[in-house]
Design a protein that fits this description.
The structure is a single chain. This protein is of the alpha/beta class. About 30% of the residues lie in helices and about 20% in strands. The protein has 5 helices and 9 strands. Strands 1, 2, 3, 4, 6, 7 and 9 form a 7-stranded mixed sheet that branches. Helix 1 crosses helix 2. The chain is globular.
């Protein structure tokens, strides 16, 4: 099933106090930049507005949003498959994870407050079935670093990262980037989905099995 319209809101997780937080929204299809900002309220408002208008929506947080929980304690903290030398548990990833937990929970609570009873999912097939009773809000993880870093715009590097993440997620979901599936996975370890946990805490309707399912991770790749 192809959705006729969707809004992707990506958040560059960072300190609100120091101006390191930014968000950007693009449409699907088309990847046209429709809105951007540097305040969490604006990001929550963009998501709520899209869902109120009947479109499906995607929230992409640029922070580790699923972590592997191994059976063997000796593997605790080990990176996810696909992370390379940038493990979620290293200093940068761990800092983004902690900040993203609080910011993501706040954003989702605001959306839940605006749209009581809203269903969310971390699983693309369940999102694509939104018109048939599935969840209209999809939650994913974005990863923007290294060669995938965009050239900073006049709005600053954080806004550029948010826009790059939004475009990468939109391209992946539309099947336009030549990549199928996720760029990182907790498997073969059991996944602990922080996205599903945030959504349930916020009061959104999320299937219970999603707490232990991998989330979609989209890595922004170099332009051109």
């Amino acid at each position: 099933m192809k959705l006729s319209a969707a809004c992707v809101v990506a958040v560059d997780v960072g300190s609100v106090r120091t101006g390191s937080f930014a968000w950007a929204a693009v449409d699907m299809p088309g990847q046209t930049l429709t809105a951007h900002g540097d305040d969490p309220a604006g990001a929550a408002g963009a998501l709520s507005a899209a869902l109120t208008d009947g479109a499906s929506a995607v929230l992409a947080l640029e922070a580790p949003m699923s972590v592997p929980v191994p059976g063997d304690w000796k593997l605790l903290g080990k990176g996810r498959t696909g992370e390379g030398n940038r493990a979620w548990s290293a200093s940068a990833g761990a800092g983004a994870l902690a900040t993203g937990l609080a910011q993501g929970a706040w954003l989702l609570a605001e959306v839940a407050r605006a749209l009581p009873g809203l269903a969310a999912t971390t699983q693309v097939p369940r999102w694509r079935g939104a018109a048939d009773g599935g969840a209209p809000l999809l939650l994913v993880e974005a990863f923007v670093s290294g060669e995938g870093k965009p050239v900073p715009t006049a709005l600053g590097p954080h806004a550029a990262d948010a826009e790059a993440a939004a475009r990468a997620v939109a391209a992946r979901l539309a099947g336009e980037d030549g990549t199928d599936g996720t760029d990182m996975t907790c498997a073969p370890q059991r996944a602990f989905s922080l996205l599903a946990a945030q959504a349930r805490w916020a009061g959104l309707a999320v299937a219970g099995d999603e707490l232990a399912l991998d989330v979609l991770v989209v890595r922004a790749r170099p332009a051109g």
